[in-house]
């Protein structure tokens, strides 16, 4: 089935007139090391723009100053180790986690992902949060119990599930194997659920082939999950909104522009 707003428009978060920011969810984005903070910052901004009430970047104390000076509405939380991270996300007001964009391919990222999955929070895993399991993908699949969305590009997909040959059937197989919703990125993005739901997103322009656009997509989907949207619906909505934002912006797009186009896309969708 092709993706369109008909599939998820009625499930987009609706604001309570007397609600507070806490009613709109709190998304935690895992920050990376000091030399590569951009990807998590893009994802955090995207999560905020799509409507999460609060967004925090959780990062090592050594990179805190970079995040703290570069971010305004997004908050920062220093977490020195896995125990500190587990304590942070145990707060019931934390409603989703986005992990992976430039997080680092190392044991720390792996331990934090496993801690997040143990906590049972809705999790979006992308980029390095997938690559860290390339030597033992079953360690990741065995840990998946909560609602999880995996958002690999074809290179990341191959590390966990093998080379892509048929995008739709490979994504479905991956969703069943992992127990997670799988969003396989590309010109046409395939979204597959373990219960065999399958949607193909076809409105993406080639201007999206630019560094960081996948990080923005992660933030959009994670931000919708923070507001209570189910992982599959959040993936479909995020993929469509991401592509529509790029289409409306037109030539010269850089990833930063995507979050700034969200108000226009949402206005068109909801009026
Ligand atoms: N501003 C930033 O800080 C940015 C940081 N990024 C981070 O940089 C790290 C490396 O990301 P990469 O995406 O380069 O991934 P990787 O370095 O993990 O993989 C790239 C390799 O995968 C293979 N591949 C196959 N299909 C591919 C496809 N459709 N797209 C890309 N590669 C494909 C290629 O062999 C390519 O060399 C990640 O942590 C990522 O989050 C990127 O997101 C770009 C922006
Ligand atoms: N040729 C293309 N046409 C349309 N969309 C594309 C094209 N190439 C990449 N994209 C989209 O751009 C995004 C790239 O994400 P990703 O590969 O993770 O990049 P990055 O790691 O730089 O963020 C994905 O959403 C993907 O679907």
UniProtKB/TrEMBL annotation:
User: Where do the coiled-coil regions begin and end?
Assistant: none
- Source species taxonomy: Bacteria, Pseudomonadati, Pseudomonadota, Alphaproteobacteria, Caulobacterales
Q: Which Pfam families match?
A: Carb_kinase (PF01256)
- Any idea which UniProt keywords this protein has? ATP-binding, Kinase, Lyase, NAD, NADP, Nucleotide-binding, Transferase
One GO molecular function term? kinase activity
Which InterPro entries does the protein's record reference? CARKD (IPR000631), Ribokinase-like (IPR029056)
EC assignment: 4.2.1.136
Describe the protein's quaternary organization and the partners it interacts with.
Homotetramer.
Q: Which family does it belong to?
A: Belongs to the NnrD/CARKD family.
Record-level GO BP terms: metabolite repair; nicotinamide nucleotide metabolic process
Q: Which residues bind (6S)-NADPHX?
A: 39, 153, 215
> Top enzyme class of this protein?
lyase
Report the superkingdom from the record.
Bacteria
**Reaction(s) this enzyme catalyzes, per UniProt:** (6S)-NADHX + ADP = AMP + phosphate + NADH + H(+); (6S)-NADPHX + ADP = AMP + phosphate + NADPH + H(+)
Query: CDD domains attached here?
Result: YXKO-related (cd01171)
Cofactors (names): Mg(2+)
The record describes the protein's role as: Catalyzes the dehydration of the S-form of NAD(P)HX at the expense of ADP, which is converted to AMP. Together with NAD(P)HX epimerase, which catalyzes the epimerization of the S- and R-forms, the enzyme allows the repair of both epimers of NAD(P)HX, a damaged form of NAD(P)H that is a result of enzymatic or heat-dependent hydration.
Question: What is the species of this protein?
Answer: Asticcacaulis taihuensis
Binding residues annotated for AMP, in chain numbering? 185-189, 214
Q: Where is the YjeF C-terminal domain?
A: 4-269
> What protein is this chain from?
ADP-dependent (S)-NAD(P)H-hydrate dehydratase
């Amino acid at each position: 089935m092709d993706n369109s707003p008909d599939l998820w428009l009625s499930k987009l978060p609706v604001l309570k007139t007397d609600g507070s920011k806490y009613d709109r969810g709190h998304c935690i984005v895992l920050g990376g090391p000091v030399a590569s903070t951009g990807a998590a910052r893009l994802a955090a901004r995207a999560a905020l723009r799509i409507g999460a009430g609060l967004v925090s970047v959780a990062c090592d104390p050594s990179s805190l100053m970079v995040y703290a000076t570069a971010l305004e509405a997004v908050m920062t939380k220093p977490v020195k180790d896995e125990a500190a991270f587990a304590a942070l996300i145990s707060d019931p007001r934390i409603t989703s986690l986005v992990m992976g964009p430039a997080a680092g391919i190392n044991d720390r990222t792996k331990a934090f992902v496993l801690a997040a999955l143990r906590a049972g929070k809705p999790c979006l895993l992308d980029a390095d949060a997938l690559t860290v399991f390339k030597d033992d993908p079953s360690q990741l699949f065995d840990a998946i119990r909560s609602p999880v969305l995996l958002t690999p590009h074809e290179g990341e997909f191959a590390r966990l599930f093998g080379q892509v040959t048929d995008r739709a059937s490979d994504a479905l197989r991956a969703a069943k194997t992992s127990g997670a919703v799988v969003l396989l990125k590309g010109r046409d993005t395939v979204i597959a659920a373990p219960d065999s739901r399958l949607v193909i997103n076809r409105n993406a322009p080639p201007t999206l082939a630019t560094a960081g656009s996948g990080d923005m997509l992660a933030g959009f989907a994670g931000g919708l999950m923070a507001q209570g949207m189910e992982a599959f619906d959040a993936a479909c909505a995020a993929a469509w909104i991401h592509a529509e934002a790029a289409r409306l912006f037109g030539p010269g797009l850089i990833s930063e522009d995507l979050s700034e186009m969200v108000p226009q896309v949402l206005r068109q969708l909801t009026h």
